[in-house]
Design brief:
There is one protein chain. The protein has a single domain, classed as NADP-dependent oxidoreductase domain (TIM Barrel, Alpha-Beta Barrel). By secondary structure, the protein is α/β, with parallel strands linked by helices. It starts with 6 loop residues before the first strand and ends with a helix. 41% of the residues lie in helices and 13% in strands. The strands form two sheets. It has an eight-stranded parallel sheet. It is built from 13 helices and ten strands. The radius of gyration is 19 Å and the shape is globular. Helix 1 (40-51) crosses helix 2. It binds NADPH dihydro-nicotinamide-adenine-dinucleotide phosphate. The site of NADPH dihydro-nicotinamide-adenine-dinucleotide phosphate has 27 residues, from helix 7.
């Protein structure tokens, strides 16, 4: 049985799919200089996601070097543009000092689209003379006002970074995309609560981190009870362990952004996530068992490992 697709309303009243099923980073990521080495598997996987009914959220970023694959998949798909939610990111950490508008236009051209549905600043680390986070945010606001970015936001931002934007900006970020899963429930101190309080929608990347590390972590004393409990719920609801974790993310009011090289997993996340529900007690138990596990941080360790 499938249910109607679910959406989340952002602080500007716009809607976003409640799950992103096709991230184009992580396992698809290509190093700088490798951009022209096209991945046929990624094209096929995006096309497959676009063949599913409803609005499909594609998560892209400048530094993934996968715009060309996104563009080819869009070209070869029958889905109309208004049924596709494209999220892109300005990646100041790896973009040859391009400005926001240069990066943005380059992304549009490579993907072959004339607007994106969500545009994010990938991280708060802009180390450029005479160009600050506030300057970058002002450029995003201009894109938002022009209608070329339907929603704008940030990624990997700490409370202090968001405070800068909230104080200086005209538009409140609609989204903060952070690493979020049971083994990392506050990427940086207080960020979960701050975003909830300020109506900045959280998106979770690496929502399946515990499954990605299951083989190793299952052997640890704090890992074993967590995995046993997730397996128990998967068996109770007759769903995959991945769906149990993704559903937990949604129950915390966060939008999971996942990806897979396997069509059946993409389909499972799209079609089955809202065909069952976890009880409040089950959500709390995953939260609590996750907090008993030592923090697991897959990304941005070089800057956030001290937290
Ligand atoms: P996930 O936590 O969803 O992990 C995906 C991995 O889990 C894949 O390797 C996949 O392997 C595996 N997987 C998928 N489904 C299942 C399943 N049912 N059971 C077991 N394993 C499964 O997300 P990612 O860490 O890959 O991140 C998702 C996206 O988030 C990225 O592609 C990117 O777009 C974005 N991102 C953003 C970052 C940022 O700084 N803003 C940083 C990192 C990611 P398989 O292919 O074998 O299915």
């Amino acid at each position: 049985m499938t249910t109607k697709q679910q959406f989340v309303t952002l602080n500007n009243g716009n809607k976003i799919p409640a799950v992103g099923i096709i991230g184009t980073g992580t396992e698809w990521f290509k190093k700088q200089g490798q951009e022209e080495v096209i991945s046929p598997e990624l094209i096929e996987q995006i096309k497959y996601a676009l063949s599913l009914p409803g609005i499909i959220l594609i998560d892209a970023a400048e530094c993934y070097n996968t715009y060309v694959e996104v563009g080819k998949a869009l070209q070869q798909s029958n889905k109309s543009r208004d049924q596709i939610f494209i999220s892109d990111k300005f990646s100041p950490q790896a973009n040859d000092n391009r400005t926001v508008s240069e990066s943005f236009e380059r992304g549009l051209a490579r993907m072959g689209v004339d607007y994106v549905d969500l545009y994010l600043i990938h991280c708060p680390f802009i180390n450029r003379e005479g160009y600050t986070l506030e300057d970058a945010w002002r450029e995003l606001e201009t894109l938002y006002e022009s209608g070329k970015a339907k929603n704008i936001g940030v990624s990997n931002f700490r409370v202090s970074d968001l405070q800068k934007i909230l104080e200086s900006g005209k538009v409140k970020p609609q989204v903060n995309q952070i690493e979020f899963h049971p083994f990392l429930q506050d990427q940086t101190p207080g960020i979960f609560q701050f975003c909830q309080q300020h109506e900045i929608q959280l998106e979770a990347y690496s929502p399946l981190a515990p499954l990605q590390r299951k083989t190793q972590e299952l052997q640890t004393p704090e890992g074993a009870p967590f995995y046993r409990y997730v397996e128990q719920l998967a068996s109770k609801y007759k769903k995959s362990e991945a769906l149990i974790l993704l559903r937990w993310v949604t129950k915390r009011q966060v939008i999971p952004v996942t990806t897979s090289s396997k069509p059946e997993r993409v389909k499972d996340a799209h079609e089955n996530l809202f065909t069952f529900d976890l009880t409040d007690q089950e959500v709390d138990q995953i939260t609590s068992l996750g907090l008993q596990h030592k923090p697991l941080r897959l990304y941005w360790n070089e800057v956030y490992s001290d937290y």
